[in-house]
Amino acid sequence: MAIADAASRLVLPLGQETRLDLDVTVGLGLAAAGAAVLGSMLGLGGGVFLVPLFTLFFGIDARIAIAASAVSVVTNSVAGSSVHLRSGFTNVRLAMLLQVTTAVGAIAGALIAVDADLAVLNGVFGAVLIASAISMLIRRQAVVPNAPPDAPDPLRLRAEYIDPATGRTVAYIPRRLRAGVGASGVAGVLSGMLGIGGGAVQVPTMNLLMRVPVKAAAGTSTFMVGMTAVASAFVFYADGLIDPRVVVPAMVGIFLGARIGSQLTRRVRTQDLVVVFVLILLYLGASLLLRAFGVTLPGQSE
Fold it and tell me: Distance (Å, rounded) from C-alpha 142 to C-alpha 152?
């Protein structure tokens, strides 16, 4: 039996077919692990890759995939943020500032997702992935200069870390705080609506708008996405969309992949991998947009 055919049973309510083929379970776990490795390295959260993989290649209902991603992103955040914290990449004060609007937006987004048409969810997700790919290409060349020691910092958000890949000390002070807080609310809505943790919007916002270095933006985003996903996960749980047959392998894969991805972030020049990630995002984004209009590419689940 093809994996896509077997996995299509996951859209059934719990209790009708509770047994899941081992190959599908392993496939879901491996897909989640790969999604977490990619997502954790750039602070996007595994949901950016997990939801389209589950939807396009395993035939899982989009709402169930989004709900599973929301729960799994919490695991991703816990596993990945511990490494980022030890590396000094995470700006906790900045995260707490941005988290207020992000959490409110996540609840609103989850409420939208519960009743949204599947074609709309696929279309919005596809557009977000393509926008993320474009922003990643832009920030690949965005170098943030070190902040001078006497630069104004009224909220004491200044932070610094030693980049293990270059041995250079990086110091910065986030800018345009009001715009950043507003953009974080938008990230929260997309997080709740799409189960992606908000990193796809949060990281470009911090890097391009607030002038936070890439690795600091990734570390801070990874710290935030877990708290954001908890807010939306409660909404999905209340609506009965949390399916253990999807959530359990996703959480195991996300946990393992996030640890690997966070370790790789320390040693790899992240910008060198951006082109690969952009190609993946463009493919998944285009596939979801086509799916929204009823077009399925070869090799994908109907």
Answer: 22
pLDDT in tens, 124-155: 888 888 887 887 777 655 556 677 777 788 88
Judge contact between 230 and 74, C-beta under 8 A.
yes
Which of 187, 251, 255, 260 is closest to 224 using CA atoms?
A: 187
pTM of the model: 0.71
Measure CA of the first residue to CA of the last residue in the chain; give whole Å.
Answer: 15
Q: How far apart are CA 213 and CA 246, in angstroms?
A: 35
- The CA-based diameter of the chain, rounded to the nearest angstrom, is 65
Cβ(110)–Cβ(70) below 8 Å: yes
In 3D, which of 94, 90, 64 has the Cα closest to residue 78? 90
φ, ψ dihedrals at 145, nearest 5°: -70, 155
Query: How far is the CA of 162 from the CAs of 1, 10, 89, 171, 229, in angstroms?
Result: 51, 45, 9, 9, 29
